[in-house]
What does this fold into?
Amino acid sequence: MMNDELKNLGHMTPPAPSSESRARALSLAMQAFDEAENNLGAPQGTAGHRRQSSIFNRLWSPIMNRKFLAGSALATLLVLPAAAFLSLELARNGLPVATGEQQIEVVGKDASNGSETKGAIAAKPATDVAAEKQVTPEASSTVAEAEAEIAVKRETGMVTDDAYGIVRERHAAPSPAGGIEMLAGGSAIRSMPAPSIVPSDVMPPPEENRDRFTSGETNPVKSVATDPVSTFSADVDTASYSFVRKALMAGEMPDPDSVRVEEMINYFPYDWPGPESESEPFRATVTVLPTPWNANTRLMHVGIKGYDVVAATAPRANLVFLIDVSGSMDEPDKLPLLKSAFRLMVDKLKPEDTVSIVTYAGNAGTVLEPTAIRDKAKILAAIDTLQPGGSTAGAQGLEAAYDLAERAFVKGGVNRIMLATDGDFNVGPSSDEELKATIEQKRKSGIFLSVLGFGRGNYNDALMQTLAQNGNGTASYIDTLAEAQKSLVEEAGSSLFPIAKDVKFQVEFNPREIAEYRLIGYETRALKREDFNNDRVDAGDIGSGHRVTAIYEITPKGSPAVLNDDLRYGVAPATQQADPVEKSGELAFLKIRYKKPDGNTSSLITTPVTEDNAVPSLQQAGQDVRFSVAVAAFGQKLRGTDAVSAYPYGSILNLAASAKGEDTYGYRAEFLNLVRLAKSLGAE
It folds into this structure.
């Protein structure tokens, strides 16, 4: 019956369209459109309490919202291994990595198999998280209840994950340095800082430099009218040059206090004429020449050469190697280099010479009793066993070394302790004065002390100088194996076999000819005028074949370079003094006082300096004289001496290059490179 009615309706004619109905429908449509447009910012849904949906959706939605955290964790476990691998590959290939988000590594256990899993996810910015937490007014009451429950737990700082039984603490602002958040149930979240790229031009902070040097003012210009006599001790040390070289090679200008100009000059071998016999321990050669950095002054150059003892006639040597094996020596340029240096020295000694080894680090210990060089294998094996560790009990080591030296003492021979250290005496009696007193006392018994310095950053040069000067020894600084070869092998005779001790120099200038003078270097070796004739005053030693050079810058009378005015009161002008000696044409008078190695009374050598010692131009001076003057200029410039401030590195380089001469070991070629480095570092 229903079908018949439908068929009848199908055959009926539809009513004609009504313009009134069309207008009403169009009006309702436009009104609905306007209302929809005004409500675009509102969430979807109805004005009621819940969305229009099926009964299925109404049941499923609360379940999913309550299990939200479990679902998120499961998704994380599935997705994160791939994400971590992709991030790792991006970082390895140098591709851009987002740095605005913090990465979090998730460490947990899979609920299905109990295995531990890891992943890395990017924590979203706080603004994004806040947006996701918003709940619309149209949301269902079930969802609202679930969200309210989570919100309460967030406010208390805890969030519960029902699927894993995990209580996880949330932090408002994870540390940028990263960290680990422990979770109940054996899981954890490790927060990691976002990867960042360190700019290539950012250098790491430099390490603290604790090198210590004796500070001293550069020698001043002195007036001959008031202070005509200059007195100083001989200095054959070379440590300063090696330290300057190490600094420049490291790309740094050296500490001005580390620059001792006389040690830089005396580093190089010069061919000064030597004495003809052992009865005359050394000979002085004086040259007066124009000053390259001041046209109105002159240089008085004094070169001294010691008598060269033939190796076959050298006395027996009793050496004690006192070696610092403290923790501070655990660097490639310290203990390893030290061991190589002593191996070279052992090869240089004669079969009847003896060597002992004492180490100190916390406590002093004897590694090797006095052993003859003929048993070289035993000595080298003892050197090879040295290992660093502990603090530096230097004073205890000195006592043990002196005990061994006394037990193996060679009468009429060489009895010397060779102290090798970075100079860090930080345990026990460590004041310079206490150590100095001990060394002075032992020196009187015929046991001398030499020092070999190693390393930078903790080098106590001031103490090393004190020990060597008061131990009648030399101070060397070993920065390379080549320097060890030079100091301990090529110049072993000079270092080990003294030909004179307590060597002092004194120069008196003629006020009729010289107005002012300035001693270049020797600031730490200055003596009082009365000390020259006092045999109780200690001074430096000169070894076999040693060369000592001293240079004065002198200002002639009437020169425009004179800095001091004549006195209104006091000494009468030189023109009113008719002393025959003053009229003799002498510029100065050089005196040298010395003692024999086993003597206590000094002897005197004198040399007058006249115009006969002068050359009219710098080019006419000897090759070695010109090269040593270039080294003197370089050392003064590194110290910041005002006298050479206007003399550029380029001029020093040209002067040294023109006087390079025969350079068997390459020392002078190396010097030219150091001048170039200083020129570059000084931005000149």
Remarks:
- The CA atoms of residues 28 and 34 lie 10 Å apart.
- Residues 42-51, 94-148, 150-196 have pLDDT under 50 and may be disordered.
- The radius of gyration is 44 Å.
- The first strand starts at residue 103 and ends at 109.
